[in-house]
Amino acid sequence: MKPNTPGLSVAASNLEPRSRARGGAATDTAARGGEAGLKTQQGLSPEARDGAALLGRKILVIVENLPVPFDRRVWQESLALVAAGAQVSVICPKGKGYEADEETIEGVHIYRHDLPAEGDSPAGYLSEYAAALFHEMRLAWRAYFQRGFDVIHGCNPPDLIFLVALPFKLLGKKYLFDHHDINPELFEAKFNKRGFFWRLLVLFERLTFASADIVISTNESYRKIAIERGGKHPDKVFVVRSGPDLRRVRIMPVDPKWKNGRTFLVGFVGVIGDQEGIDLLLASAQRIVFDLGRDDVQFVLVGDGPSRKRMQEKSDAMGLSDCVTFLGRVPDDELFSVLSTADVCVNPDRVNPMNNLSTMNKILEYMAMKKPIVQFDVDEGRVSAGEASLYAKPNDPIDFADKILALLADPLLRATAGEIGRRRIESELSWERQTTKLTAAYTALFAG
């Protein structure tokens, strides 16, 4: 199981995202990649830019979801740590376009390993995770002898990287847990049950928190979990959100081609998996187009994922093929063009314990692009977007459709919501605002 994590880039590679089938609520965009940011260390705080906060420290980052630098959150963190003076190594899987066993990019030394096909069952996930742990342990020892490290920075899912860290903790090294996904809730949302594997995930989560010297949470809900469920002292838990890098966001001229001859465009960007509620979005499109006779609305979905083929077939079977476009992964220029052209952007994630407590990066990205949003009424969605969004009744595609139409009917409301969202990103939620929190977490780690 993989989310908070990745960027606005939906790289045009053939890499299949190991995404919300395995988690990644807070990183759904991470699964789409991040070729931008490979050229410059953007969005860094003054404290990080001065190159002194972590001078001489050596950090090993381990992530299983995606290759680096394709994983946007992990890549931004790595660059920020390098800019703060640290020596940074990363262990990650290989992927299309990121197949070198070992290379250094912008001062970040990357070790990559093969990974079996993504599991589609609890047993399949265990097999995948076992292979990942083997390679992570092997490469951690290589990194230890080749470059050394003071701390392992483990990015879940899965909640198993503490097993790699344990022998090094015996050698005096520290473990920082970067909490991207709440895996017990993810399992329950995906399989609609608990049982043995759910209890196993609860155990792994508890052991992960117990092993961590410091926890980085992607939002306040996750911080509360770390404190209440994980037993961490509040002083040991820091919130570092996966904010968009405003130095890379490009608002472009409207391009009518995306509207397919229609008046309005409804945009979606993200992973297309079982938890993303694309079926609910299609039901909303069906109501708008057929039940209400609105032939002036085009829907464009950007992104890929394990359910894309099935959702596209479902769309065709519903008679929506002309007004619903599945673009797949696209280069940044096309992504920014679609979002710039969109009149409304949507997040149809179902209301469940996983989504209710998780920050969806697509919401922050829409806000960065000054777009009004429609989403179901989830707690963290409201925390992020506030008045930049309208909120439909939980899992109700009819109300979701009505909220889309309400925005399409009111240009002033759309513009106002877009401005509110952008200002919130600029003032609080951008990545530049997060780097000071990241270095503060590391300062506390090394002071403890």
Automatic annotation (TrEMBL):
Composition-biased stretches (Low complexity): 22-33
InterPro entries: Glyco_trans_4-like_N, Glycosyltransferase_grp1
SUPFAM superfamilies (alphabetical): UDP-Glycosyltransferase/glycogen phosphorylase
Domain Glycosyltransferase subfamily 4-like N-terminal: 73-248
Stretch list, region Disordered: 1-45
Molecular function terms from GO: glycosyltransferase activity
Gene3D superfamilies the record matches: Glycogen Phosphorylase B
Keywords for the protein's UniProt record, in alphabetical order: Transferase
Highest taxon above the source species: Bacteria
Classification via Pfam families: Glyco_trans_1_4, Glyco_transf_4
Protein name, entry field: Glycosyltransferase involved in cell wall biosynthesis
